[in-house]
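Lab manual, section 2.4: Encoding a predicted structure.

Procedure: take the sequence of the chain (318 residues), apply the prediction step described in section 2.3, and record the output as structure tokens. A sample record is shown.
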Amino acid sequence: MFVETPFDVPERPQSNGEAAEAEALGRFVQAGSGAFSDNTERALRSDLAIYAAWCTEHGLRALPAAQETVAAFVDAMGEVKAPATVRRYVTSIDIAHRIVACANAAKSEAVRLALKRMHRRKGRRQDQAKGLTWPLRNRLLDMAGERLIDDRNRALLAVAYDGMLRRSELSALQVPDLFEEMDGGATLLVRRSKTDQEGEGEIVWIAPDSLALVYVWLERAGIADGSLFRSVGKGGTAGGPLPPGQVPRIFKAMARAAELPASAVDGLSGHSTRGGAPGRRRPGGAPAGGAARPRTGPAPASRCRRSSMPGGGSRPPW
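Recorded output:
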């Protein structure tokens, strides 16, 4: 998982127990690759590197750590980082200690009190992404232009809204994952997600108007297979898979084109499609992100998990 362990062996002689812990962490580094999502691996690698560098700077042992060490780290980071970031650091330190089965300072009373001090100073509330509401969705779609990239952006936004999809999920969608249904809408297979790391698969419902936007994009871009959403080059041609990091930039660009206030533009992010999910509803009664069924009738769950491809639909006509 890690390129190298951030817990360097100290210059003083190791005890047998310390050597065993270092060896155990090394085995985890080798075996853990692929056990977590790419985002989780990057976060752990970054968090533990920051923690280890701080410990080195202050002449403290990172693993196993004394509870006073982790508490002091929390106090120091609480001065310069957001509370949510510091809490993530503590979680990463906790994971590292559990891996090598040593005393877990991250769970100590001293660390709990350090976190409490930080929250009293800075609060716990995080800045929330602006939710993509139905009126906002429609305004962004209506104000988009007529270029190929605008067709892509309209389809991306509509699918993201209906499925409440994360940016990584949008980037990973494939053309064969989309199945047109008899009602004019479609089912979309989300092969892997943040909450489905083993790839069991989940089904979301795409409304007919959103599906029509997808058809326009695919036909104009000449896409018949492979990635559903692609990068668009300066020459107006579709390229490789759309990187996840481009999704929030696209939403912000659409908001600027719609002449939204700067505060609204800044509030949009890759999480906006999931903001206010329980109360977001399309006209006709069905919530966005509904499972594969028509808009009328009982409100469905946000997603329908399936271990196989959906049946009963037809392949899209391109």
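Check your result against the sample. The mean pLDDT is 76.
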